Amino acid sequence: MTQADIGLIGLAVMGQNLVLNIADHGYKVSVYNRSPERTDAFIDESVEDRPIEGFYSLQDLVASLSRPRKVMMMVKAGAVVDSLIDSLLPLLDKGDIIIDGGNSLYSDTSRRTKALKEKDILFIGTGISGGEEGARHGPSIMPGGNVEGWETVRPIFQAISAKVDGEACCDWVGEEGAGHYIKMVHNGIEYGDMQIISEAYQLMREGLGMSAQACHEQFSKWNKGVLDSYLIEITAEILRIKDSDGEPIIDKILDAAGQKGTGKWTGISALEMGIPLNLITESVYARCLSALKEERVQASTLYPREARILPENKEAILEAIHDALYASKIISYIQGYMLMREAAKSFEWDLNYGGIALMWRGGCIIRSAFLGEIRRAYDERPELSSLLQDPFFELAIKRAEPSWRKTVIFGIESSIPTPAMSSALAFFDGYRSARVSANMIQAQRDFFGAHTYERVDAPRGQRFHTDWIHSDGKDTLASKKV
Ligand code: 6PG
Fold first, then answer.
1. For residue 287, which atom of ligand 1 is closest to its CA?
2. How far apart are CA 430 and CA 417, in angstroms?
3. What would the pLDDT profile of 382-437 be if each residue is shown by its tens digit?
4. Would you say the CATH fold of 438-481 matches that of 6-176?
5. Contact call for residues 97 and 122 (beta carbons, < 8 A)
6. Which pLDDT score is estimated for 1?
7. What does the alpha-carbon distance between residue 165 and residue 170 come to, in Å, rounded to a whole number?
8. Are 13 and 76 in contact (CB under 8 A)?
9. Using CA of residue 159, residue 162, residue 167, residue 170, what is the dihedral sign?
10. Do the strands 174-175 and 140-145 form a parallel or antiparallel pair, or are they unpaired?
11. From the CB of 132, is ligand 1 less than 6 Å away?
């Protein structure tokens, strides 16, 4: 009997769909699940005549694989991954490859890559995006880790991934936890995109008094222009669907968002790296605030929103919301790329930014036409420090700016929160200011803590201190070089 090309552990939804996808591309797959019942059910119900075989021990699974063995884990991130690696190690030989396709924390992946390298086992931590449908018919795959394993897994990964204009949405991302880092940023951007779309939706629904059906039509229209993306498409679809009583299902869904943690990790990493990733971080906070449902309901009776007359220039505001959505989206990606750049510097990863945009162009949750432009921008100028310097994005932001401001003001006046759209605007206003208010912060720090400051009329790096505390009522104090 021929040996299998790859083994897959973990037959939850993503695992099952990946197995079917791999098998449909002509590869033989061995599968294992901790509970044998699930393996049996999968084999009985889904496998049909595909080259897939179920195993009931890790030993048998590994023994069924051709060398070098490729064992892919599709299990819950965290301790389960470590204990599974420990169980696999005695069964594997030098040069075999372990792949983690879950949403693992990048620092865990870096640690595992290093530890397994010492044992001559090649470890690949890969982001996989696209949900159930993507896994089945073409996900976006973002592998990183030990590059020596890449050529062996490349044919399978690139065969099963999504394709855009014939190019696979899968390429090598970089060393150690780079693949999972990029997937984490992808998820952060996913949080941001979802938040700005939700803000636009609430402005339309409550600020402009539009019905769910009217919002459906608007999002469908927007999906044909610059906002063309998977998340806009599903938003339109969600707004079309009615509950069994004929009412829009969206109105029946509780407004308390869940989260599994990847958005939060992105925010934490941004804070650690000192990158102003405020749109994504606000999106995480917005989910946290939404989860305080009971408190919000109470507060809403204490501070009821003022009743407002719906505006008459609805069409103009709708257009403004569109532009605000587009500009905020650009800022979100700009911030995401700033973070990846800083991470690459800090971890000494060699990231291919155009390639990352291509990986996100198809198959994944944040796929959009707009990523084609990001790819072009980085392919033309790989050294680009910010997408805001690319002429396409410069023009897009300049065109959208007045409407973006109008939208944020409309939200404020209507008491409708737009934390992501308005924080993106605050970022933009700060980023394009040659002078911000931090001179006051530096003066305050020097006042109470003698933290020193730099001067506008002295070379960067030279530090000064003023003895503010002992001014004794004097109006003039010396700024002393320290
Ligand atoms: C993807 C998604 C996926 C993510 C879910 C849930 O790319 O397919 O990012 O990996 O886990 O969307 O995320 P939250 O529960 O945190 O919203």
1. 17
2. 21
3. 888 889 999 999 999 999 999 999 999 999 999 999 999 999 999 999 999 999 99
4. no
5. yes
6. 63
7. 13
8. no
9. negative
10. parallel
11. no
Supply the pLDDT for residue 46. 94
CATH of domain 183-431: 1.10.1040.10
User: What is the reported pLDDT for 385?
Assistant: 85
C-alpha span between 143 and 158 (Å, rounded): 11
Strands 163-164 and 140-145: unpaired
For a ligand 1 pocket test, name from 187, 234, 268 the mutation site with the most ligand atoms within 8 angstroms of its C-beta: 187
Closest CA to 101 of 159, 171, 180, 168: 180
CA distances from 389 to 334, 368, 378, 396, 432 (A): 10, 21, 11, 11, 11
> Which residue stretches of the chain have pLDDT < 70?
1
Which CATH number applies to 438-481: 1.20.5.320, 3.40.50.720, 1.10.8.60, 3.30.420.40?
1.20.5.320
How is residue 7 written in tokens? 């083994």
461 φ, ψ (degrees, to nearest 5): 100, -25
* Any ligand 1 atom below 6 A from CB of 328: no
- Give the pLDDT of residue 88: 98
Q: Is 104 in the pocket of ligand 1 (CB under 6 A)?
A: no
Is the domain defined by 6-176 classed in CATH 3.40.50.720? Answer: yes
